């Protein structure tokens, strides 16, 4: 599971070709949680996350993400419609745009915001919320750290 977020832990495999990014990113990375993430939407689960990301010049995208746990409950939560554009901003804020989550207690769609430590390559999510889809339900909330390998970085 950690290797999946290492492939997901900002699993960005496909690549984004939009021209809106102004930053310059490091190389492709795998994503993996540092410890299980807390994932909440009506219920709270401890899940391992893995993924991948394509980081090339001014383009950054998450190409895959996945959740797992020993009971199999986290595997019932899926991420869809890749790739997700990733933007770096001031104060090392990273926004993963248009995250599409489908889960056992409902769906979420929107941006996921975290903070990237460019020295360690760890993205921290603190009460990061993705709005409910459709609107009106509880959001998806993620807490925890995801490590990028090799360490991701960008120059604004």
Description:
This protein has one helix at 2-7; strands spanning 24-25, 29-33, 37-41, 43-56, 59-68, 78-80, 84-88, 93-103, 106-117, 122-130, 140-149, 154-155. It contains 1 helix and 12 strands. The protein has 156 residues and is mainly beta. Strands 2, 3, 4, 5, 6, 7, 8, 9, 10 and 11 form a 10-stranded antiparallel β-sheet that branches. It has a two-stranded antiparallel ribbon with strand order 1-12. It starts with a helix and ends with a strand. A hairpin with a 1-residue loop joins strand 3 (37-41) and strand 4 (43-56). The longest helix has 6 residues, at 2-7. The chain has one domain (2-155): Porin, CATH 2.40.160. The model is unreliable at 1-21 (pLDDT under 50). The radius of gyration is 14 Å and the shape is globular.
What is the N-to-C order of secondary-structure elements (H for helix, E for strand)? HEEEEEEEEEEEE
Tally of distinct domains: 1
Task: Provide the low-confidence segments as ranges.
Answer: 1-21
The largest sheet is: 10 strands, antiparallel
Mean pLDDT: 85
The total of beta strands comes to: 12
Radius of gyration: 14 Å
The number of helical elements comes to 1
Here the CATH topology equals Porin
């Amino acid at each position: 599971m950690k290797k999946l977020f290492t492939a997901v832990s900002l699993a960005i495999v496909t690549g984004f070709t939009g021209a809106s990014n102004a930053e310059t990113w490091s190389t492709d990375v795998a994503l993996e949680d540092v410890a299980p993430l807390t994932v909440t939407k009506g219920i709270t689960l401890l899940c391992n996350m893995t993924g991948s990301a394509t980081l090339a010049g001014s383009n950054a995208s998450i190409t895959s993400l996945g959740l797992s746990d020993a009971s199999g409950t986290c595997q019932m939560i899926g991420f869809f419609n890749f790739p997700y554009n990733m933007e770096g901003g001031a104060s090392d804020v990273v926004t993963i745009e248009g995250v599409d989550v489908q889960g056992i207690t409902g769906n979420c769609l929107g941006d996921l915001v975290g903070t990237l430590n460019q020295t360690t390559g760890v993205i921290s999510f603190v009460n990061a919320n993705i709005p409910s889809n459709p609107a009106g339900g509880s959001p998806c909330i993620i807490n925890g750290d995801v490590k990028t390998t090799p360490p991701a970085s960008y120059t604004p």
